[in-house]
């Protein structure tokens, strides 16, 4: 595990986010273990692993209806980038409504490639600048479970998931 990955996992732990590591062969099993049903999601990038591109091998309902989204406990998406020193995740908006799947559930399971975890926010902003200049788009930077203290006491899950589980996918050896 490299310095950036270790910092990322430490930052996530400090935020109360659980982390597991998988490789391309085991990512589907890790997703299945991390979800609480009913679960919804959007198809993951095929480069996350041979079976990751299809969530068909999991209990996750892909491209859910509004009713399935409303009833879901868990949402599964991928992160474009991770920010090592903050434990933040960059969630790119897609035509498949990934933002709905990541924000309207109590538990968010996020899959990110270890190679896409950058050391700090400066490197992340530079990477996003290059991507958005080239291809356009938008993204959310999410750090830990949703929380607010607007009404006094800290409340988790007020504007998004109460719990977050990150699966870091390393290249198989």
- Number of beta strands: 12
User: Oligomeric status of the shown chains?
Assistant: single chain
- What's the mean pLDDT score? 88
Cα distance spanning the termini: 13 Å
Q: Regions with pLDDT < 50 over 5+ consecutive residues?
A: none
Backbone CA Rg: 15 Å
Q: Give the SSE string.
A: HEHEEHEEEHEEHEEEE
Strand order of the largest sheet: 1-12-7-4-2-3
* Outline: globular
SS summary, helix count: 5
Helix-residue proportion: 25-40%
Set out the fold topology.
Layout: H1 3-14, E1 18-23, H2 27-34, E2 39-41, E3 60-62, H3 66-71, E4 74-78, E5 81-83, E6 88-92, H4 98-103, E7 107-113, E8 117-118, H5 121-135, E9 139-143, E10 147-148, E11 155-156, E12 163-170
Parallel strand pairs: 1-12, 2-3, 2-4, 4-7, 5-8, 7-12
Antiparallel strand pairs: 5-6, 6-9, 10-11
Short descriptors:
about 170 residues, alpha/beta, Rossmann fold, 6-stranded parallel β-sheet
Describe this structure in words.
The protein is α/β, with parallel strands linked by helices and about 170 residues long. The chain has a single domain (about 5-170), classed as 3-Layer(aba) Sandwich (Rossmann fold), CATH 3.40.50.10420. Helix content is about 25%, strand content about 30%. The chain is built from five helices and twelve strands. The strands form three sheets. The chain has a six-stranded parallel sheet, with helices on both faces. A four-stranded mixed sheet has the order 8-5-6-9. It has a two-stranded antiparallel ribbon with strand order 10-11. The longest helix is centred in the C-terminal third of the chain and has 15 residues, at about 120-135. It is globular and about 40 Å long. The two termini are about 15 Å apart.
